[in-house]
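FAQ: What does a multi-protein file look like?

Like this. Sequence, then tokens, then the next protein.
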Amino acid sequence: MKLFVGLGNPGAKYAQNRHNIGFMALDRIAADHGFAPWRSKFQGQLTEGRLGRDKILLLKPETFMNLSGQSVGEAVRFYKLDSTDVVVFHDEIDLAPAKVRLKSGGGHAGHNGLRSIHQHISPHYDRVRLGVGHPGHKDRVPGYVLSDFAKADQNWLDDVLRGMSDGAAYLADNEGPKFLNAVALRVNPPRPSTGTKGTQGKPQTKTDMPKLNSNPTPKTDPDPTTEDTRNPFQKLADRFR
């Protein structure tokens, strides 16, 4: 069993914030893979289902971001999970928008949700780092992550969420590279081939060139025994050939 945790803040006010991309990821996975209805538990919203052969719990803490670890810690202790069974989906300002990276363990890099989880279950858990971009100056970070995604972000955001849902079973099965590939196929799908059929658009080869007659039949005047069907212009032209 694994516990997927999406970080965010509860309530409609925050639903479309950049800080809530972790919630969005879990909502997409739950909807696409037929998880049970969400229910209140562990100071958050919980649902369960299967991804491939693995049973998965999805948890959205409702303690507000800075206290996310309280909710996660309760769930880990109740199900007797190890911290390495936990995967946390969170916004990452140090990654460009639409970039997704995986990380095992390590520091919290100032992210208050991760800081709280560190305190309750240790740093030894996996993270799905979801790039939302940086506002350019650290003083603007709080307002930036607590603002809604711009309209221009909607296309790549939808691709990232769908890509993570596509690859969720790989993530559950510890197939990180396959998970990231599923995301990449949504964000940057392969371009269709631009090749053309046959010889159209290709340089002509000797076999493509029309054959020239090396012994052309000399021009002669029309046979006088046959009816002359030439028009006056043709007759005049033939006189000067």
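And here is the next protein:
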Amino acid sequence: MADVESLEEPASTKSIIIKFIISLALGILIMLLPRPETLTPEGHRLLALLTFVVFLWVSEAVPIGATALLAGAGLIFLNIQPAQAAWAPFASPAVMFVLMIIMFGVVLNEVGLANRIMYNLLKFAGTRIKRLSLILAVGCTITSSVFHDATITVIMVFAFVPVFMSMGLKPGQGHRLPMFFMLLIPLSASAGGFGTLLGGGRNPLALEVLNKFSGGTISVGFLEYIFIQFPICVITAVTTWAVLWVLLRPEEKELEGVELADPGPMKGAEIGVLVVFIITFVLWFMGDLTGWHYSVPAAFAILGFCGPGWISFRTICDKFPWESWIVFGAGVSLGVAMLDSGAGRYLAEVCLPLLDGKPEFVVYYGMSFFGSFLSSLMSNSAAVALMLPITLPMAELMEMSPKSVAMMAPMTTSFIMLVIGCPPTIIAYSTGYFSQVDFMKIAIPWCLVLLVVCVISMLVYWPLIGFI
């Protein structure tokens, strides 16, 4: 993987101090506000800490890795979580899975598979940026409905990075072309995770919550789920590409100066790594039978890469973007604290009743936006687990279909507004081709537009198939 350079010129000491003081002042302001009766003291302190940390992240006043560690320490310092609970999520199964998936990207690049993937992609799609990017967006979204979105992201991101480096487009220089692709890949992959039950843990979780809420009377089968969700997944793919094309269209018409030589026959290391990848995918598909978490086959894969000597573990560690991984760990830790402290439930109970009596589109959009907001601060599975116990009773009281509300949750929690929101965006951020501010400028309008598209799609498509 290419060395990641600084995203911006070093900020002045005065600028750093001002941003830090503003962040601290905002946190203290939240802390000093009267605490609502329905919000726990821990939840109140967490919202103050969250305001402080998120502003520091977005302003990039200090290195994001340092801010991430400060988030964990803040949970302990403010007596929101005990030390064990605050730091444990940094080594949770989800975070460790992301660690190993990013390591996959290093392996792909080092053994030459990334170059081979890119060669065949350009051979099929051509170098015209409009055609290539559209095919890439649709491909990432559809494949992420079956494979984990982090897996698809790491494969494609590390296939493109060597191309941009060969064009002289290095990280941290603000080039529009690599930024366009480095944002398109993770957002397209994230937008596809709801397409089938295999796409992410939030999908079966939503069905499980629905089944329990209905007393076992409502269930959705594997193929029925695909029939309901997958067509909308295709629409989100094209919409994602369209939004990024409008907001971040590259000046270049094609990838000029890219001369990828035919990689020729696969080398021994490439064949070995590819075989390990295939076995890993098979084990992921067999997860229901084995009962293994995604991280278990991933750990076996790292052993499979390093054991035969195809790549050294030291090389993987040297090339690994540790800072981005730590940031993801902090995001998970804050998300767990949102659940444990009651802060997330408080926000839901305050915000969602505002939708009562509003038009159907507004209600669905409001619920969708809240799901996306939560998913930007915690894992999408946690967001689904938090919102559905509140939105399902609301749906029943408002004479809405509980089934449609449940099926909407995994869809709308696929769209996030902060880099920390999901593994694909963390992986792409690790390349250094965009800052958090760059990300928000694109991700927030992308999220708002995708929510509109999804709500309209479900209100039009689902009645046609007799779902609502």
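Q: Is there any per-entry metadata?
A: Some entries carry free-text notes. For the entry above: Confidence is low (pLDDT under 50) at residues 1-9.
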